[in-house]
Fold each of these.
Amino acid sequence: MSPLTGWRAALRIARRDVLRAKGRSVLVAAMIALPVLGMTAADLTYRSVQPTLADELTAKIGSADAKFEAAGVGPIQVEQPPGDAEDWYLPEGGPYPEDDGNDLSVDVPAALPKGSRYLTEQSAPASVTTRHGVADTRVTEVDSGDPMLRGRIELVEGRYPESEGEIVATTGFSEDSGLSVGDRLTVRGPGRSYTLTGVVELPANLREKSLYALPGAVIAPWQEAADTDKSVLPPQASELAWLVKGPSGTGVTWPDILAANEKGVVATSRQVALNPPPNSQVPAAARSEQEEPEDGQTEATLTVVTMALLEIVLLAGPAFAVGARRSRRQLGLVGSCGGTRGQIRAVVLASGVVLGGTGAAVGAGAGFGLTILLRPMMENLSGQRFGSLAVHPWEILAIALLGLVTGVLAALAPAIVAGRQPVLESLTGRHGSRRSSRVLPVIGTVVLAGGIALAMYGGLRGSTQVVAAGSVLAELGLLGCIPAIVGFLGRLGRRLPLTPRIALRDAARNRGRTAPAIAAVMAAVAGTVAIATYTASITAEQAYDHRPNLTAGTAAAVADAGAGTAELSQVRAAVEQHYPISAVRADIERVWAGSDCAVHPGEEGRDCGALELIKPTGKPHTCPLSDDGAKELAQQISADEHKRLMNSPACVDEEYSHRVFSGDDHKIFVGGPELLDSYVKLKDPAAAKALSAGTPVLLNSAYAKDGEVVLKAIHAYNDGDDTRRTRQAQKATTAIDRLKVYVAPDRYAATPGIQMIMPKKTAHELGLHVGALGSIYTLTRDPSEAEKQAAKAAVTRAGDGAGIITATKAAGNDDDSTRLLLALFASVVTLGAAVMTTGLSKADAETDLTTLSAVGARPGVRRSLSGFQCLTVALTGVLLGTAAGIVPAVALRLTDLRAALEAMRSLPMQSAYTPIVLPWPTITFLALAVPALAGLLAAALTNSRTPLARRVG
């Protein structure tokens, strides 16, 4: 008999067996379809969301053929690469623009191809009125209704502007501002009002918040208003750009760009970018850099595919083993009729072919449906439209083929076991019990330890490939230990109540079914925990490196030195009326010597006064990372020691050099105990008592020696300062005073913007001047966009001399959504694996359940038993996966630490802090919520009634 005939018979038997055991067959097909569905949806989403070069050009120039701009060097020749107008060069040996105020303008329309049509584009930042108040945005002047803008700007609601009194807004601006079609808004610069005629979106940037008007509608009237009224600031307009539609059938060619380059004009052409000329025709070819392709995405893709294959094999393998055991009589009959072991194996493998093919086809089709269904959500998450659904047929076919092949591989081990089973045992239904291997856990432990060691070695050496290899080995070693772990759990069950005891013993007795399911959960959770740990660590590092402009959770209402009391009062009222603040307000005042340099600018110490805290010399007061010998010191210290030095007051003073509340370098301000409490967060009663008694509070101890600071004040008065007459000072005088101070603990040295708080009476005793600066408020939450706009409107009415400052946020907060998606993915796999394994255990242990009913067990035992079986698989897999996922995350952070140390030893003041932070919310969700949900679902979906059993024999 030919092999083809034997396989035809095997496939026919397998097909009938699949139809006969519909429940088990659906479970197996679902196990195979789930990863195929995920890979298909991921492939379609990735291919669709990744912009092609054509998509990038459309986002930049719409449907136009090219975009022309002046290079900004005047009418002299420039050189540019074909695809990037921003990366241009001046010819070697050519003329350079003279920086002596000469006119560098260029007649760009004269450089356009003959017979072409063009649109102009120009933008400027502006403050506009909204339904809530005033908001800052960008206004772009371009004819957005022209066909040349299609693909770049698309209408969502209403119509495009048709006159200079009309304007359209993006969806992001419309939602934040509360404006809708038909509403009026005013651009504050020119003071002109416009009607909102439509809402548009930018397919390449759905989060854009801006306005679009016709050319000449905003910027020109604004400039005219600034020319006639000096109180109106002129617009900060960008350079003009020209969107060009070339002659019909020709477009904008490379010779057209070269001709424009000779006149000082650069261009981005769709035709040239998609079909670049040879380097021999590109003058700048030798000077432009080519980007090297990144291999990281390929490695990540291979890792994901490998994990998906492992998931299929681990999940579907036990199902085929259960199917083979339930069909052992049928397989025994095949053997008794002369069937060989190979033919018996072929019957089981044919089940893998049938179910693998079915699961792969269903998974691929469901992947398409899921992608289409979730497309709007994915577009919102990515912030851009997909355009068309990018389908690569060969990739989809390869994914489906992988599902088929892994279905066969999942059936391979059960097929081998079925082929070795004696015919007599198969016919009688008897099967002996096999002891689990004692060698496998030993090997697994050795491989686990070796993999961890290899991963850590790779991290210390900075090799991500070695880290990946070690992590895979560690996970494989843990896989080898799972049967022993399951057996240990079975022995723990002897002290538990009936139902969990039976569940644990059943899991231990059927390790061939339980261990792969636990391994599948472990593999999914390990990947999730690894990525979540790494991203949480990166977020913590970014938060540590962030230098806030204000103390977190605060807002400041401040006024310029020349502002009046009325303006400051209005700004304070704006914050108190519109921001979510606590009841306590902390006022802060400026202090200066001589004439105020903010009002009478000039050289400090000569034309106006100067105030300075003199830092003592010596080890506690000088930062060793910025002093002589810093590089030698950096070569010898660890990251922890470097962090300790960087957090010392002496080094904090070197790093936190920016000014917040005013332009004064000394960062000395006048305030009371409420400023310590609400802004500095210094709760020490001794500090408040000292401040009330007239003793300054020093926040940076590097300036103190023996509890005193040295304050140097140069009382220099400007000729235009009226206080000069009252002081009758003809020459600048210098005063150096020693002040007894309260020295705050070192952790307060990093307080943004303040170095020392001085009582007002002490400032007056020293002959210093004090003036109102503003107030600081503690926020109960972050203000909403509507509250910010309302407050800004009130500030606008107060004038330009006052404003509101809010604390800046650290970068990296978007990683929270990434960790959430990963946790949801791992939850789906965990629930699927646990529920499917529970279903298989019910099918495999029906006789045990019948025996329980026969000896008087309550009907609810079936439900609770299913629940605890599901809980056992889910909880064990999650805990092992968490441990396995920490290994690669820690190793990769060691790689980052190596790079950070190298950078620090080159630049000693650069941070080398590389924290390892566990994502406890994600781990808690996976370890508690998901197993509990799996157990409850399994219990709820289990029928508590015992089905009628068929008599055997």
Amino acid sequence: MTHNPFSRSLRARLVGATLSTTAIALAALVFLVALRSGQTLSEQAQEISHWSETQLSGRLLSDAKLAAARLQMQREDVERRFATIAKRWDVSTAVFSGNTVAASELMRPALALADLDGVIAFDQNLRALTADRVEADLLAANTAIGRTPLAAALRAIIARNDRERSTGFMMSLRWDGTVAGALAANETGSFVDVFGQPLFDEFGEVIGGLVGYRMLRPREEILTAFNALSGRDVFILAGSRLLSSAGAEMPDATLGVASTSGLQAIVGTEKVARCIPAAQETRLCVAAPLQELEQIKNKVVGIGEASSRSLLTTLCVVAGLTLCLVAIVLLFLSSHITRPLVRITRTVAEVARGNWHVTVPDVRREDEVGDIARAVVVLEHSLAERDQLRDDVFAKNQILTEREAQLQEQNERFDAALNNMSQGLCMYGANGHLKVSNEQFLHIYGIDAEALAPALTHSDVWFLAGLGHLPVRGRGGAQGRVTTATLADGRHIEITVQAMADGGWVETHEDVTTSVIAQARITHLATHDALTGLPNRALLTERLGEAFSEYVEGGRAAAVICIDLDDFKGVNDTLGHPAGDDLLRQVGARLTALSSPGKTVARLGGDEFAIVLSGSDLSDGALRFAEEALTQLRRPFFIADQFVSADASLGIAVSAETDSDGEDLLRRADLALYVAKAEGGRRVRAFEPEMEERQHHRRWIERELRIAIANGQIELHYQPLFALATNTVTGFEALARWRHPERGMISPGEFVPVAEATGLIDALGVFVLRTACAAAMSWPGSLRVAVNISPIQFRDGNIHRIVEEVLQETRLPSQRLELEITESVILSQDQATYQMLTELRRLGVRFSMDDFGTGYSSLSSLNSFRFDKIKLDQSFVRNLLDRDEAAAIVHVVAELGRSLKITTTAEGVETEEQLTRLRASGFSEVQGYLLSRPIPAAEVAGFIISQSHLSAAA
């Protein structure tokens, strides 16, 4: 395409003029910026000098603070080491032994490790006891200590008297004759750091104080190390007097007047310093050479000059880039006029070659170029419509051909789908004759293809399929009917009938044998126990409901027997859970074999079973059946290659008019079982109305006890224990008493078992423990308090933490607390229980075995755990005078206590004769109504004082 030379020349002149004007303007701008930058650097010289001085002052201030911090860290390190010396037991012993030479020899190596110059010890009255030097003037120290601040500081730390939270003191003092005399020191110096710590005896009581001191060195190692690390000279001044320094040698350090930035010139040197105040009107200073100030100033000036050069370079680069950008924009604008015409020309050429779908540019322009573009668009549309008519005729012919092929394919697919269905299919016309069937139908019923002709009626087809015994369904336009047929070979066939619009219908036949069997299995699993195969609680409830309905309608009576295996946990623990599962299966088998077809044996869960009976005379029959069941269960079981004995508790309930449904009957049987278990198990108990009354009373006790614990209705009475050797009180046993607002005092034997069964024993036990420990702290002297701990309280695994928290809260010494536990805690063979007992023993708590002699393993318990005391059960004391066996046991227990060096206590002493026999047998302690009944908490202190007066009079 030929271009216009005139257009090209005009475009060149326009671009050249614009670029020349822009270049001149940019050059003038760069010149002005360079001129102003030079003037700015000259004006800022004074500010740079001041800024440089401020920067150096800030650096020196930071170094001074860091040096001061290191000095403080050194003091704190010396204080910690000194505190370690003071807490050593051998130091306290040596100081208060009176042996000055031994104390001096013991403390001198420790002082060297702690970097101390000397040490002196004082008693509680601030009398000097000993020092690190044998020749120290202790009398002068006694005289001088009162004239120094050390006296008040020592009295303060001695007065705290708390070994666990003991604190000392640290102070810096000017060194003079008074301070030197108070410390019995012979050193010379200017300043000294003094440290103080309390001294305690082996019982944790404060007995005096220990004072150490360290003189300020002319060359402190910590400052020398700081000088080596930072390169700064460091010195400490008192006025103009140099006390200590590190770095360059300075015989004296006279400082000039401080500048606005805090810098001071050091007279006679080329250095400046920055000082901060220190202890006792001293100053800590850090110095730097004046050359460092000049280096900072030159560095800032160099940065400014480099910045100016960089600015000028950037301006030059930006000017060049701006010229290039202007040139590009000018070229773009100049070419924007001719390019649209070129595009239209190319589009017309494409249309001429037969491309009628090319996009026409610039159709939205409002000038002549836009008119040309729109005319080309009209031409394209006319040519495109002609071609579209031709293409439509061709497309319709193609569609007819494709539809014919699709119809053929659909027929083939229908045949394939019909013969590959998982269900058998038969289609019948309105006249009841077979129209279509598939291969799966023939396979399900085993029919030959030749035998199934299209003209057969519905009855004929069902006869061939072996369904002739079923009523004919689906005929006459039945809608969505489903029938399940059972064939002679046991298979289950589901037949679905669906009506068609023309009066015919379609039948589908599906073999659902697997689904029917699976559903039956699911139903069995939902209503039977997976382990034993017996009915579960759900099926038992259903059968019980049926039996109770017969009873309500005037039929036979119903009864329920609840069974719980005794000591099933022991089988699991000793032989393992597989053996326990085997035992449950054999128990279920024996109960099933014992039961007639009309009875239902079910497993309720765990080791609990239930049997539902029905009959005309169940009052005696149910009891006989239960006793026979107990007899059968007592026969040995062969489990894990050995014979295992088992026993059970049984509860019986027979239907009565008071029952509203089967659940009431089951509840009464379960209540009878609970009573059988409570009476020791291994027996049969029939339900009695009194059981329900006792159950209601037990629930009342539980509800009221919960309120009593929350509202503080529980009181503690304390029964004293007397030492037979001295006839003095050795301690008290805390006994819970419940004062109900309506019923008055309720016996512990009535509410403690309920608390243990319901879990309230945890809250009750914590209340008793906390109250007893707090009360013991208010008693005169250091008598012990004994608190009973239930085995249930070991269940949660935190009894040791509770005891530790109570001791910390009440501040009762652990050796004054005695925990009374029964041998059942030891016999549990639980590792967690042993761990808790070990933790309690670590706290220093004493242990007493309560009710000794009533269990079957008391001696084994003594061998398993170390007890401090054994308490003989009061049943032996009660029969002491009447039965020779009881007297022999009393004597044996006393001898056992002497042999094992364990305190022996007899409880329940009520007569003088019993007391005399126990004293003769050699018992250590006694308690009982003869000596004192349990005393209310408010009267214990008076009782202790009166007993102490009686002992003094005796």
